Amino acid sequence: MQITPFAVEQWMNEFETTCRYNLAETCVASLTIGELLEMTGERQRFLEALLPLKMTYGAIEGSDRLRTAVSKLYAMQTPGNVLVAHGAIGANALVFQALVAAGDRVVSILPTYQQHYSLPESLGADVQRLSLRAEDGYLPDLAELRRLVTPGTKLITFTNPNNPTGSLMDPAMLAEVVRIAEGAGAYVLSDEVYRGTTQVGDELTPSVADLYRRGISIGSMSKAFSLAGLRLGWICGPAEVLRAVEIHRDYNTISVGMIDDLLSSIALEHRDRILARSRRIVRENLATLDRWMLSQDRLSYVRPKAGTIALLHYSFDIPSRDFCVRLLRDTGVLLTPGSTFDLEHCVRIGYANSAAILQEGLQRTSAWLRELS
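RE: above sequence
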């Protein structure tokens, strides 16, 4: 199978571990195990469960405890609608492998995480790209979506909240996407790893799995839950999809780690505390980014509605990779070039790292931009 190199992951592999100020980070500031157990009050119970734990393969689909905790993130799902995977990246890959065949039409809303178009392309799918525009608030043109979703379309796929722009489809728009999909008999794959990090309100935003009988929602412990090191995600969707996924999963997953399963269960059982922390961080840090953007006459952006990231456009005549490499070399600040999303003259910034890293990184970037001007 031939596949296009995964540009954003290769960028992070090359530079993430050597930068001083990581403003390419996409997770809300990561928790330590100690912080997680202190926040949840589960330190003693965790040790009591951990020490006698036999290091077997564990529950193949994910433990009943974990799948129950995941199901409670949704309005209409049961543990039987949940299948655990190795991160959202593993979950997305399994869905594409299970559902998409050569010649199938897949409509992917871009910019997005590259899995959502390169993977179906590698499977021989007819991938139609719907491009988001800044003037539309990076929300899809529904008339264009209707044109692309022809009868027999297999799948509509997107990230919501969007990566890399932080836009968020509201319930009315999601309902219209569902109507378009239903008219064609298509599945909808919604990668919702940033769900829970809205700038307004404390309730979880609607999930495609709850809105549509062919809706498939992908979640993860990485972004909103600050536990990327667990490498644990899930698929929430129709039983027939999960059964198809399980056939492929047997070839590349078997089970997730038992300790990862246990810690994820603890975190999700106390999700309100963790998500409250995440919302506080993203809201305070976005306010910092807002103030900084007001001082930058060569930069512009559409303010994110949710998530941990934003797309900054610049007016310098420099390719985005060169822009980011020079910034890193001169200041130690890491951003993500727009070229990793098939875009130019823009960069993705992650603003949910620690406040101190964000503030220092922005200050150093300001000084560098003044010299560049």
